[in-house]
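anyone else get weird line breaks when pasting these?? whatever heres mine. first is seq + tokens for prot A
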Amino acid sequence: MFPIAIIDLGSNTIVLEVYNQKKETIYHESVPAHLIQYVDSNRLMSQKGLSIAYDTIAYFKEYLHNHQIQHVHIVITEPARIQNQSALLSELMSFSYPIYPLKGEEEAYYDSLAIEANHPDLKEWFAFDIGGGSTELIHQTGQKKELYSIPLGCVRLANEPYSLEQLASILRKTTNLNPNLLFHKATVLGIGGTIRAIGQVLQPHIISPLLKATDIQSFYQHLLTNHFETRRLIQQYVPESRQPLILPGLKMILSLIHHFQISEIQVSQEGIRQGFLHSLLKQ
């Protein structure tokens, strides 16, 4: 069965990860495809976007073929929620890999499996996963999960600027409809490339840093004022393709901090790919 390859087709990046029998990553490659930029206001992906998705998988296939990796799975997150999903699936079916188009709550579910596997001692926790086109929220107490997906991520926020007040209003409506998302003094984990990039800037050389909300707020203010040292650190530690997404991603994180009264965030290295892998191995 091993090695197992998972292709994570997201709205900002398309990622290939290959795992060995110990569930360790033995190969990782990320392509900044920015597919969400090719989705119009009617939620239709253009032919150019469809072609970029196809070409990226074809590029990964060359590596997989050369290394004789046969167990390959394609997981599609936010791009699976476009109106012309069938066109995207049609583009990818020629590769003959199993394809899993995920709803927002399913994406949050796989995030939760990754957290469970890597933090088995946590009895209650809250996690958020900020992607390019959506943000997943998870509150787990024991075996009870509350899963929710908001169709706003860092790429979408970069293209459709929302104020902190507008984001706060969205979160209020979300928890009014889903009160079980609210928590008290639970461990908070941040998932995704944006929070990992912020962690790299605020606490370089620490793999999974614990970030204070006050430091994140200061970082945001420094970005707004074009603080020289902050910009230098971003250029040093954050990939160029992700740098424009730091500010919109920060706005969503700050909205979560204020709404849920979060004091600190544990940056998680796990996410949907690891959760999906755990699910595969249970089958």
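and prot B, same format (seq, then tokens)
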Amino acid sequence: MVSKYRGEVDNLKSHITTLRVVIGIVVLFCFLFWNSANKARDVQRVFIPPDIRAGSTITLNQVPATTAYSFAISIFSFLNTWLEDGSVEYPSRVGELSAYLTPRYTQWLKEDILRRSGRGELDRRTRTVTVINEMAYDDERVEIINENNFVVWLDLRIKETHRGVDIKTVDIRYPIKVVRSDISLDFNPWGLQLDGFHGNPTRIPKTVNE
């Protein structure tokens, strides 16, 4: 009788050991799947061009020139739009867009804010930015340096007022550096950042008024 019970106990222990091994294997597979899914989420991106009505070939992890252009104009325009008071809105924009700006460009912007504030240029200053109609997107507006670096030329009309008085309406060509970023999609769904100017901005002839 004792040997019978011992046999059953041994069988039960063996069964429990088998279950533990199976559970361990399942947990291991779950961990490996979760880890692989996280890695894929971090590094695998599909960049959809803004306009695919004419058809488009999409390559995994490749940034289309149109996407780099759309990103640059969206972020740069918002950064430079101050509707009421540049002394408040300019620093606020830099903070709001921190995930879309490289640390180097962020530092440059903060220094620019200090320079302008010291000269009294931002107090009650407003600025609006619009794309010059006849100078919208074409392929020559984006230079692909490599798969991670781009130069985007934005032709923009800048209108400014100071204390309610119109002071400037000028057309400027901005050479903007755009770079790939591995920042989390939760903070930056574009996967791109502005990295400052590629050379100095230049005036475009036919300025309306300054």
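btw re prot B: The chain has two domains: 1-30, 65-203. The mean pLDDT is 82.
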